[in-house]
Design a protein that fits this description.
disordered N terminus, Immunoglobulin-like, Rossmann fold, six-stranded antiparallel β-sheet, single chain, alpha/beta
């Protein structure tokens, strides 16, 4: 019996030593390493691999770059000089995509997990956590009478909200794209970091930011939904009930937060599918929002002309545009990348507004239908509202 106990103890100590050795060995590899000249070195230990590549949105014109094997089976690749930005990447080992085990920082885009890093000194500074007063982010549940079920929101309240019980704040309703959920703008969009930094710099008005879940098939983000551990997917999110049930979102926010309960205290903006939703919600509630932002909006998408859940929402669009602009929104903002596959539809919509003489602000950036652009648009739009 004594020998059995000693053997078990030895096995336990060996297992602990192995685990510690594994952790120690991993910590000796620095990846990614951001150098002072804004080049970046990636490292991956794979002594038995035949090929290792790195793939990411920092590469120009190629899908992946070959890494070179060095001592102890550690493969390396160093980039050229990169502009300040947030970048995603992964490794490809013998044709299989894998994450960087030495980088704990991950973002989820629908069902795809990606490592990321931030190069400071420019745009990337907007997405970093700085020594400034920080807002709070809550995940809250509201009941939608239209949907007949509880649903979840992410809500950002600015620094000082809890300490100023008599102060009311304007609200930005910020909508995600197809396949996203109420976590997308916080993770991929760095919304809380952007707002913290802008407010601290005096470039944006302290505001509440409400990020709903526009995927009507589910109550909340994966792992938080009452229907179980579903796999995220990039379909089914254009459910037309999104727009009709939005009144439940506004009613909940106005009854649970200290909001400015009028059009001058409300803005709505969204990317891609969320841009389409922002477009349609603003048209159907023309006196509700003084500020509207369409980020790479999915305009031109065929919608059901009449829906039992949302009767009349997709009819008389031209008349609704006239009504909206008759109410003189303080800012109607359209932004899109010059290589975005939706730019022709956005240009057609702009031509319609131009023909009617309706004023709007337009921002065209490099690149396509990517989060790098949508972070830029949020940063820019947030500085123009509620002033």
């Amino acid at each position: 019996m004594k020998k059995l106990i000693l053997a078990a103890a030895a096995l336990f100590l060996c297992a602990g030593a192995w685990a510690q050795q594994s952790l120690t060995g991993r910590s000796n590899i620095v990846s990614p390493e951001i150098h002072p000249d804004n080049t970046v070195t990636f490292r991956f230990r794979a002594p038995k691999a035949i090929t290792v590549q790195v793939s990411g949105d920092f590469l120009q014109g190629v899908r992946a770059a070959d890494m070179k094997e060095g001592e102890n089976g550690i493969w390396e690749y160093t980039t050229g000089v990169l502009p300040s930005e947030l970048y995603n990447y992964s490794f490809i080992v013998d044709g299989i995509s894998v994450k960087d085990p030495n980088n704990a920082y991950l973002q989820r885009d629908i069902a795809n997990l990606m490592n990321y890093f931030i190069i400071p000194g420019g745009k990337g500074d907007n997405y970093l956590v700085h020594d400034v007063p920080h807002g709070s982010v809550s995940r809250v549940w509201y009941h939608s009478d239209v949907m007949g079920k509880d649903r979840r929101l992410s809500v950002y309240t600015p620094a000082g909200y809890e300490d100023n019980p008599s102060k009311r704040y304007p609200v930005l309703y910020l909508l995600h794209g197809m396949g996203g959920d109420e976590e997308a703008w916080l993770s991929l969009g760095r919304a809380s970091q952007i707002l913290d930094n802008l407010i601290a710099q005096g470039k944006a008005v302290p505001m509440i930011v409400v990020m709903p879940n526009g995927n009507m098939l589910h109550q909340a983000a994966p792992g938080e939904d009452g229907s179980g551990m579903y796999k995220p997917y990039n379909s089914g999110s254009f459910d037309t009930s999104t727009e009709y049930q939005f009144r439940d979102v506004i009613a909940y926010v106005d009854s649970h937060y200290r909001t400015v309960k009028k059009a001058s205290g409300r803005a709505i903006a969204g990317l891609s599918m969320g841009g389409l939703h922002s477009y349609e919600i603003s048209l159907n509630y023309p006196k509700t929002f003084d500020y509207v932002g369409l980020f790479s909006a999915a305009l031109g998408v065929e919608r059901v002309p009449e829906n039992a859940m949302a009767p009349g929402f997709y009819q008389d669009i031209d008349r609704k545009i006239d009504v909206l602009f008759a109410n003189k929104p303080r800012l109607y903002y359209i932004a899109i990348g010059k290589d975005d596959f939706l730019i022709q539809a956005n240009n057609a919509y702009r031509a319609k507004l131009d023909a009617k003489g309706y004023k709007y602000e337009y921002l065209e950036t490099d690149g396509g239908h990517i989060w790098r652009n949508w972070r830029i648009y949020l940063n820019d739009f947030s500085q123009k509202i509620f002033k």
